[in-house]
Amino acid sequence: MAKYLFVYHGGKHPETEEEVAEVMDAWGKWMGDMGTAVVDGGNPVGLSTTVNPDGSVVDNGGANPASGYGLFEAADKDDAIAKAKGCPILAAGGSVELAEVIDM
């Protein structure tokens, strides 16, 4: 099985304790349904910093800032896409970027 990095972008943050509980339950169910395909469930991330080739540093998160990540096993790209389509970030208005991890 190949490994795929899922990078989450955007998504609305829950505002109430009830919304937090619902979101956490959705993420738990999604990952639980994938079972052993979850290599690293990941975490949310803070605003990113970009170091450019000229040495300049930008603290704005870039054009499409990451909001979290996860590492999952999938049979192929189509399987990874199918798994990503169940991600709770989509219901919150976010997106999932995925890329196969190349073993070296």
Structure description:
With 104 residues, the protein is α+β, with helices and mostly antiparallel strands. The protein has a single domain, classed as Alpha-Beta Plaits (2-Layer Sandwich), CATH 3.30.70. The chain contains three helices and six strands, in the order E-H-E-E-E-E-H-H-E. The chain has helices spanning 17-34, 77-84, 88-91, and strands spanning 2-9, 38-44, 50-51, 57-58, 66-74, 95-100. The strands form two sheets. It has a four-stranded antiparallel beta sheet with strand order 2-5-1-6. Strands 3-4 form a two-stranded antiparallel sheet. A hairpin with a 5-residue loop joins strand 3 and strand 4. The longest helix has 18 residues, at 17-34. It is flat.
How would a crystallographer describe the biggest sheet?
4 strands, antiparallel
- CATH level 1 class label: Alpha Beta
Q: Tell me the helix content.
A: 25-40%
Overall residue-averaged pLDDT value: 94
Gross geometry: flat
- Regions with little confidence, pLDDT below 50 for 5+ residues: none
Q: What's the tally of helices?
A: 3
Structural Rg: 15 Å
CATH architecture identity: 2-Layer Sandwich
From the N-terminal CA to the C-terminal CA, the straight-line distance is 15 Å
Domain tally: 1
Could you give the order of strands across the largest sheet? Answer: 2-5-1-6
Write the element-wise H/E pattern from the N-terminal end onward. Answer: EHEEEEHHE
By CATH, the superfamily comes out as Dimeric alpha+beta barrel
